[in-house]
Structure formats: C-alpha cells, structure tokens
C-alpha cells in the first residue's frame, strides 16, 4: 500500500509515478509532485518507481515572487 494525497492505495510491483497519476485521473501537467517529501520533476515521473509505504503528494505549482 502507498499513500496518495488523502488516499491509501495498492502499490503493485513496477508502479511508476506517471502510471499512478494516470490511474487516479490526475492532469499531470497541472500539478507538481513529491514522493516522501522529495520534489520529482515531470521529466522523472516515468522512471520513478514507487514502493509500498511511499507517500505521494500532488500540489499546485505556485509561480511568482
């Protein structure tokens, strides 16, 4: 199992961050992502493997100063 925002979900072997976002119907281009508190760039989502116990958060990117 893994934690995705406020949900607890199964974590099958080989699950990538990109696949999780797709399965949860998240518009990947509109969110930033973090796994276990570490920011994951969009370019690394396809290769970021998730493990049981991981915590995945999505959040709106904020631009400006």
Protein traits:
65 residues; mainly beta; Ubiquitin-like (UB roll); 11% helix; Beta-grasp_dom_sf; Mopterin_synth/thiamin_S_b; Thiamine biosynthesis protein ThiS; ThiS/MoaD-like
What features would you describe in this structure?
By secondary structure, the chain is mainly beta. It has one domain (2-59): Ubiquitin-like (UB roll). The chain has 1 helix and 5 strands; from the N terminus they run E-E-H-E-E-E. The protein has one helix at residues 17-23; strands spanning 2-4, 7-9, 32-35, 38-40, 55-59. The longest helix is centred in the first third of the chain and has 7 residues, at 17-23.
Topology summary:
Blueprint: E1 2-4, E2 7-9, H1 17-23, E3 32-35, E4 38-40, E5 55-59
Parallel strand pairs: 1-5
Antiparallel strand pairs: 1-2, 3-4, 3-5
Class by SSE composition: mainly beta
Superfamily at the CATH H level?
Beta-grasp domain
What low-confidence regions span 5 or more consecutive residues with pLDDT below 50? none
Strand order of the largest sheet: 2-1-5-3-4
Radius of gyration from CA coordinates = 11 Å
Number of domains: 1
User: How does the overall form come out from the CA principal axes?
Assistant: globular
Order of helices and strands: EEHEEE
The third-level CATH topology is: Ubiquitin-like (UB roll)
What does the largest sheet look like? Answer: 5 strands, mixed
CATH architecture annotation: Roll
The percent range for helix content is 10-25%
Number of strands: 5
């Amino acid at each position: 199992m893994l934690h995705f925002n406020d949900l607890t979900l199964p974590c099958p072997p080989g699950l990538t961050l990109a696949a999780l976002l797709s399965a949860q119907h998240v518009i990947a281009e509109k969110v930033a992502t973090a796994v276990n508190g570490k920011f994951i760039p969009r370019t690394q989502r396809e290769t970021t493997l998730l493990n049981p116990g991981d915590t995945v958060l999505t959040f709106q990117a904020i631009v400006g100063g």
